[in-house]
Amino acid sequence: MPGVWLVYRAVTGGLGVDPVKSLEHALGELSLQFLLVSLLITPLLRYGRVNLLKFRKALGLIGFSYLVLHFLVWLLLDLQLRWGQIGADLVKRPYIVVGFIAFLALVPLAATSFKKAVSVLGAQTWQRIHRLVYVAVILGGVHYVMQEKVWTVESLAYLAAAVILVGMRFLWIRRW
Amino acid sequence: MFKPDLTQADVTPRGLWLNRRKLIAGLGAGSIAGGLGLGAQAQEALEPNTWEEITTYNNFYEFGIQKDEPAKHAGAMETDPWPITVDGLVDNPGDYMLSDLIGDIPTEERIYRFRCVEAWSMVIPWNGFELNKLLAKLGVQDGAKFVRFETAVLPEVMPGVNYPILDWPYVEGLRLDEAMHPLTMMATGIYGEPIPNQNGAPMRLVVPWKYGFKAVKSIVRISLVEEQPLNTWQQSNPREYGFYANVNPAVDHPRWSQSSERRIGGGLFARRIDTLPFNGYGEQVASLYDGMDLSVNF
């Protein structure tokens, strides 16, 4: 688990001289990685006939968990509950707003990730709710690009991956 | 804490390095007695960062945009001899070798706070000399209003300059009165050692009341000019970076608040501290900006 490795390095001083930023960035990146991989499951089935559907939910939930940790590190270790500054950031800073919306978009998914949710909500409603992940990965990629001081290949690659994986859905899904 | 006027207290004799903590405690007490009233945080904050922190966490995009990249790549840069060009409105223009240019200007140690525009900070014991001493040697002519600096562009050893991340060479500038201010220095060392390449060897600018990006590294050209130079970050993104770049908790960067900063070195649970106007050097430099709207001239 990359998370365990991260905690190990955080505790042993392996995250460099600015461990808060390293941890914050690593958690955000891991979250995006897991969410993007979860979006790879369906294309693999359609085009590669590789069935990894049973991992999809776990990948999504791990991605969401890293996002929660990313958010908590920002709140507790980076801004240290300076609520004035946090409030201002959440209103005034576009990249933080974008990231926060991505986080909020995933909350209903995580909340309806238990088995019974499908029968309670009905399959169609449940599915619609879970399409919010498309919004989240696109905004996640945008958030990554926006927080850089200059254009970086890495952040643009994540955004491109998100756009491609979500773009596929527009080809497949007839009725949203 | 810095005294309003520079005194012996600002200089750490070589033999006293081991007693640095005591000395700093003394300086802190002195500044409170002196009525600066900057509070306990500012006092504690003057304990210098470690050599490792200062030399492995660098923004030097010529060597890569990640903060650990300069330390990895900069070793390949040859800094001795170091050619440096002086031109513009000076009595003694020309192509010099750095050692000839510095000549017999003595170096001293200055412990300064260093505040990055990215809202992190350090405390660094620089060795160097006041820029005004060098400018006096060059002979600034009447029409000169600004000093313009350029960083080296060495594609063989600087992986970053092969990409259009910024418009190379890196350019910075100061108004002449800022350049002449006794706090403004040229640094050639840290902790009494020659300045490491990743920190801007063999000579870099240090302007403690401004964001770190003004402190141009590995200088190869100094020009005295009449027009305000277009500095690299302002050119790259004028909405976010200005010419003055004075540390100012009241003027936010468009993408983040500048009201507080994370002092590097405290580990995962280091306390965030309030950012001081002019990075705590307001008493010495605020008058340079009398009558200016600092939210416009950011």
TrEMBL record, chain A:
<feature type="transmembrane region" description="Helical">
    <location>
        <begin position="129"/>
        <end position="146"/>
    </location>
</feature>
<keyword id="KW-0479">Metal-binding</keyword>
<keyword id="KW-0288">FMN</keyword>
<dbReference type="InterPro" id="IPR013130">
    <property type="entry name" value="Fe3_Rdtase_TM_dom"/>
</dbReference>
<keyword id="KW-0249">Electron transport</keyword>
<dbReference type="Pfam" id="PF01794">
    <property type="entry name" value="Ferric_reduct"/>
</dbReference>
<keyword id="KW-0408">Iron</keyword>
<keyword id="KW-0349">Heme</keyword>
<comment type="similarity">
    <text>Belongs to the MsrQ family.</text>
</comment>
<keyword id="KW-0813">Transport</keyword>
<keyword id="KW-0472">Membrane</keyword>
<feature type="transmembrane region" description="Helical">
    <location>
        <begin position="152"/>
        <end position="172"/>
    </location>
</feature>
<keyword id="KW-1133">Transmembrane helix</keyword>
<feature type="transmembrane region" description="Helical">
    <location>
        <begin position="59"/>
        <end position="77"/>
    </location>
</feature>
<feature type="transmembrane region" description="Helical">
    <location>
        <begin position="97"/>
        <end position="117"/>
    </location>
</feature>
<comment type="function">
    <text>Part of the MsrPQ system that repairs oxidized periplasmic proteins containing methionine sulfoxide residues (Met-O), using respiratory chain electrons. Thus protects these proteins from oxidative-stress damage caused by reactive species of oxygen and chlorine generated by the host defense mechanisms. MsrPQ is essential for the maintenance of envelope integrity under bleach stress, rescuing a wide series of structurally unrelated periplasmic proteins from methionine oxidation.</text>
</comment>
<keyword id="KW-1003">Cell membrane</keyword>
<feature type="domain" description="Ferric oxidoreductase">
    <location>
        <begin position="28"/>
        <end position="140"/>
    </location>
</feature>
<comment type="subunit">
    <text>Heterodimer of a catalytic subunit (MsrP) and a heme-binding subunit (MsrQ).</text>
</comment>
<feature type="transmembrane region" description="Helical">
    <location>
        <begin position="30"/>
        <end position="47"/>
    </location>
</feature>
<protein>
    <recommendedName>
        <fullName>Protein-methionine-sulfoxide reductase heme-binding subunit MsrQ</fullName>
    </recommendedName>
</protein>
<keyword id="KW-0285">Flavoprotein</keyword>
From TrEMBL, chain B:
<dbReference type="Pfam" id="PF00174">
    <property type="entry name" value="Oxidored_molyb"/>
</dbReference>
<keyword id="KW-0560">Oxidoreductase</keyword>
<dbReference type="InterPro" id="IPR036374">
    <property type="entry name" value="OxRdtase_Mopterin-bd_sf"/>
</dbReference>
<dbReference type="InterPro" id="IPR006311">
    <property type="entry name" value="TAT_signal"/>
</dbReference>
<feature type="binding site">
    <location>
        <begin position="215"/>
        <end position="217"/>
    </location>
    <ligand>
        <name>Mo-molybdopterin</name>
    </ligand>
</feature>
<dbReference type="GO" id="GO:0016491">
    <property type="term" value="F:oxidoreductase activity"/>
</dbReference>
<protein>
    <recommendedName>
        <fullName>Protein-methionine-sulfoxide reductase catalytic subunit MsrP</fullName>
        <ecNumber>1.8.5.-</ecNumber>
    </recommendedName>
</protein>
<comment type="function">
    <text>Part of the MsrPQ system that repairs oxidized periplasmic proteins containing methionine sulfoxide residues (Met-O), using respiratory chain electrons. Thus protects these proteins from oxidative-stress damage caused by reactive species of oxygen and chlorine generated by the host defense mechanisms. MsrPQ is essential for the maintenance of envelope integrity under bleach stress, rescuing a wide series of structurally unrelated periplasmic proteins from methionine oxidation.</text>
</comment>
<comment type="subunit">
    <text>Heterodimer of a catalytic subunit (MsrP) and a heme-binding subunit (MsrQ).</text>
</comment>
<feature type="binding site">
    <location>
        <begin position="61"/>
        <end position="62"/>
    </location>
    <ligand>
        <name>Mo-molybdopterin</name>
    </ligand>
</feature>
<comment type="similarity">
    <text>Belongs to the MsrP family.</text>
</comment>
<feature type="binding site">
    <location>
        <position position="58"/>
    </location>
    <ligand>
        <name>Mo-molybdopterin</name>
    </ligand>
</feature>
<feature type="domain" description="Oxidoreductase molybdopterin-binding">
    <location>
        <begin position="77"/>
        <end position="233"/>
    </location>
</feature>
<dbReference type="InterPro" id="IPR022867">
    <property type="entry name" value="MsrP"/>
</dbReference>
<feature type="binding site">
    <location>
        <position position="204"/>
    </location>
    <ligand>
        <name>Mo-molybdopterin</name>
    </ligand>
</feature>
<feature type="binding site">
    <location>
        <position position="199"/>
    </location>
    <ligand>
        <name>Mo-molybdopterin</name>
    </ligand>
</feature>
<feature type="binding site">
    <location>
        <position position="116"/>
    </location>
    <ligand>
        <name>Mo-molybdopterin</name>
    </ligand>
</feature>
<dbReference type="InterPro" id="IPR000572">
    <property type="entry name" value="OxRdtase_Mopterin-bd_dom"/>
</dbReference>
<feature type="binding site">
    <location>
        <position position="151"/>
    </location>
    <ligand>
        <name>Mo-molybdopterin</name>
    </ligand>
</feature>
<keyword id="KW-0732">Signal</keyword>
<keyword id="KW-0500">Molybdenum</keyword>
<keyword id="KW-0479">Metal-binding</keyword>
